[in-house]
Amino acid sequence: MDYINQTIRYVKEELQGAEAGHDWFHVERVYKNALQILQYEQADEQVVILGALLHDIADSKFHNGNEDIGPEKALAFMTSIQIDEEVKNHVVEIIRNISFKGGNFTQSFSSTELNIVQDADRLDALGAIGIARAFHFGGFHNRIIYNPEEKPRLNMTKEEYKKHVGTTINHFDEKLLRLKDRMNTPTGKKIAAQRHQFMTQFLEQFYAEWNGER
Ligand code: ADP
Ligand code: NI
After folding, report:
1. What pLDDT score does 127 carry?
2. d(CA 129, CA 126)
3. Atom of ligand 1 nearest to the CA of 171
4. What is the pLDDT of residue 102?
5. 66-103 tens-digit pLDDT
């Protein structure tokens, strides 16, 4: 079996029973987005593929905030299938640095490969899928849909963002609508613009219905 199929098999097994926002199908969509972006970029294909497939192998949100488990598990797996040292280290950096976490901190590592995987992951937070994932997340964590008296918080630090319990509609302002301007690659920007527009249309309809105007 080649390294891609070995990795797919491992990720599917590890993510069995994962909540629907970060399950194998999320990873599969991110993988497909990454392959699409890769067509227009000069980058190491193996690093991008492994980064996309392993990026959510152990999300810190579901491990008491522990940000080391994901990179460690990915590293152990890559060692078990004899991936080159340099590739392994690069993939680990991608997993460590991919996350949004409020957007108000400086990333400690940068590479074209990270840019691609990050864009691929962000695209899955946008558009129709993005809306579905946001409300799924809200339901899963027992959050309320919307409260007109609760204003979005835009300047949270990474720690505040991680602890913050807000409404799902506010999450659009706090994160989802800000992603369009944070895309790294031209392909990512183009797809994000279209998905962003779909989300703003959804919100317009949502507020109109909330106010009994439509
Ligand atoms: P990141 O790792 O980039 O910080 P998350 O893993 O927190 O991103 O979020 C992944 C997806 O889960 C988001 O794109 C969104 O769809 C959903 N999500 C995360 N936090 C919230 C929230 N507070 N309300 C609604 N959806 C959320
Ligand atoms: Ni992800």
Report:
1. 98
2. 6
3. 24
4. 56
5. 888 999 999 999 999 999 999 999 999 999 999 866 56
Answer for the pair 28, 54: CB distance below 8 angstroms, yes or no: no
Closest-CA residue, ligand 1 atom 26, reads: 134
Ligand positioned closest to the Cα atom of 29: 2
CB-facing half-sphere around the CA of 61: CA atoms within 13 A: 18
In whole angstroms, how large is the CA radius of gyration of the chain? 18
Return the pLDDT at 100: 66
Mean pLDDT of 139-167: 91
| Ligand 1, atom nearest to 101 Cα | 4
Average pLDDT over residues 133-150: 96
| DSSP letters for 46-106 | HHHHHHHHHTTTT-GGGTTT-SSHHHHHHHHHHHHTT--HHHHHHHHHHHHH---TTS-S-
Q: Which residue's CA lies nearest to atom 27 of ligand 1?
A: 134
Rounded (to 5) percent helix, strand, coil in the chain: 65, 0, 35
Looking at the CA of residue 133, tell me the nearest atom of ligand 1.
16
Structure tokens given for 50: 């492994």
Please say if the pLDDT value at position 63 is more than 90: no
CA of 118 from ligand 2 middle (Å) equals 8
Side-chain half-sphere exposure of 130, counting CA atoms within 13 A: 28
Residue 149: which residues within 8 A CB-CB, separation 6 or more? Answer: none
Q: List pLDDT tens digits, range 42-53.
A: 999 999 999 999
